[in-house]
Amino acid sequence: MLDVFFTVDVEIWCDGWNNIDEKFPDAFRKYIHGPTAKGDYGLPYTLRVLNDHGLKGVFFIEPLFSTRFGEQPLAEIVGLVAESGHEVQLHLHSEWVDESKIPLLAGIHSKRNHLRNFSTAEQTTLIGAGTQLLEQAGASHINAFRAGGFAFNKDTLSALSANGILFDSSYNASLFGPDSGVMPGVVVVEPIECAGTYEYPMTVFNDGTQSLRHAQLTSCSYQEMEGLLWQALEAERSAFVILSHGSELLNRAKNRPDEVVVKRFHKLCSFLDRNRDSFCVRGFQGLKPRAVLQQPRPLVSPVWKTGARMLEQAYRRKYQ
Ligand SMILES: [Zn+2]
Description:
Blueprint: E1 2-10, H1 20-33, E2 35-36, E3 39-40, H2 43-52, E4 57-61, H3 66-69, H4 71-83, E5 87-92, H5 120-136, E6 144-147, H6 154-162, E7 167-168, E8 192-194, E9 197-199, E10 204-206, E11 212-214, H7 222-234, E12 239-245, H8 259-274, E13 279-281, E14 299-300, H9 303-319
Parallel strand pairs: 1-4, 1-12, 1-13, 4-5, 5-6, 6-7, 7-9, 10-14
Antiparallel strand pairs: 2-3, 8-9, 10-11
């Protein structure tokens, strides 16, 4: 049995940083509800499809935006996720720190896009503030974290430990993982223990090109994802972490559903539902931490699937 984490980063962007107070209500609708002429394809849609298949999702919710726009929109998001029976966990985008109306950190007057650019003490404060915001918005039992843009470092794991958060899922070998200070020189693909925190890295794979790719709904074809899941099961991996976003089923302009990605999502859910004797789709609450001492090599997907995916991605770019 392989533990599968279907993780969804939930965040709101206002298309730049000018007039954000004016732009926020529309941005909230787009990123959270995702209205289109064909219906809504945002967070409630994602929650409904997961529930239709009896699958549990992990929703890493970004709360710092609420220090600018108020707690009601955050409470709405937390309510949607929690009332549908899914896990609310913490996601932080430090881009909001200098936009906040509540002083989160002293002396920050310009933008710092990455959490890893803050000291351990500052990261500890931000993670504490984020947890408190989510709890005030109705979340409970938060025990997992993901840094915005996967831009964490080893200090983040100490900061999580100081806040009593046991799990992290910020290590991404295709992004900042290798120079995060966590197991230098090793590509981390299976859970480890570091600085008092259990790291559950993003699942990445070698697709025959030069770089590693992460298992994201918009980045992988359904065939790739299914093949990788079987391969991870056969290799007796401990965990398989999939990435999505609250607005991932929409096209780039967020005015239409991305039909290819919607189809991938439905197929993946139906596959995981059919094969629940092999794959346990779960969250971090109640999880017994695991640590794999000898890291295996990243999973490999055959090149023909890479080629097929490239065609599918080109179709998406052209017609969505
Ligand atoms: Zn994010």
